[in-house]
Amino acid sequence: MASTVQYPAHQPLTVGFDLDMTLIDSRPGIAAAYRVLVAKTGVPIDIDLVVSRLGPPLEAELANWFPAAEVPAAADLYRAAYPDHAIAPSTALAGARESVAAVRALGGRAIVVTAKNEPHAKLHLSYLGIEPDTVIGSLWAEAKGEALRDQGARVYVGDHTGDVRGARVAGALSVAVTTGPCDAAELRTAGADVVLEDLTGFPAWLAAFAEEQAA
Fold it and tell me: How far apart (Å, rounded) are the C-alpha atoms in residues 9 and 19?
């Protein structure tokens, strides 16, 4: 799917990135926060299953384990535990820092648009020394597309079919990585324009894309 949005030639290249399982491996941290939630509520949660399908908003996952009326309180408990338990165990994925740097090297803007709430997203990025120009949180799937469009993003990089849908709404090129819960076939079927194994291949792809755009 080629971008359907026309950008002025003088507008800097803006590239959006998802956070969880695109830039960072947050599974150890999220698992730790869920263990605190289980200890506080006594509700049994299959944490291995939870971290195998990261992407959708927290409340959507909690709805699998708590009655609807209890989801907001469970989300509050989880988020209260998150800074102390989830930040330190999480790591940058291979190529993450280099990919953000590649955007900057082209004079572009690197932004993060994520379903994670913004304060926690910023904590992760600061802890790992990844410095995007803008961080926008609490958005999922098509809602990501609205923010990407507002930011003038020409490319959105993510690991989930929801990220592909967000890119489509924005009229941005969808670059998908298979470091998350969705495999290459799922991502292509959802409409991803480019599928990479991980972000290590992204800087070279971006350089070729920028050269093609300038031609």
Answer: 28
Query: Model confidence at 11, in pLDDT bands (50, 70, 90)?
Result: confident
DSSP H or E run through 128: helix 118-128
The CA-based angle 184-93-39, given to 5 degrees, is: 100
Per-residue model confidence as pLDDT tens digits over 27-45: 999 999 999 999 999 999 9
Given its phi and psi angles, is residue 186 left (phi above 0), alpha (psi -120 to 50 degrees) or beta?
A: alpha
Place of tokens 């920028």: 210
193-199's contacts with Cβ under 8 Å and 24+ in sequence apart are: 193/1, 193/2, 198/93, 198/94, 198/95, 199/22, 199/23, 199/93, 199/94, 199/95, 199/96, 199/98, 199/99, 199/157
pTM summary value: 0.94
Residue with tokens 């755009």: 213
Query: Per-residue confidence at 215, pLDDT binned at 50, 70, 90?
Result: confident
Residue range 161-188: mean pLDDT, rounded: 98
* pLDDT at residue 2 tops 50: no
Q: How many angstroms separate the CA atoms of 60 and 112, rounded?
A: 21
- Angle among Cα 107, 127, 30 to the nearest 5 degrees reads 115
Q: Give the whole-angstrom CA distance, residue 190 versus residue 168.
A: 10
The answer to whether 52 and 149 have CB atoms below 8 angstroms apart is: no
DSSP character at residue 93? P
- Partner residues linked to 53 by β-bridges: none
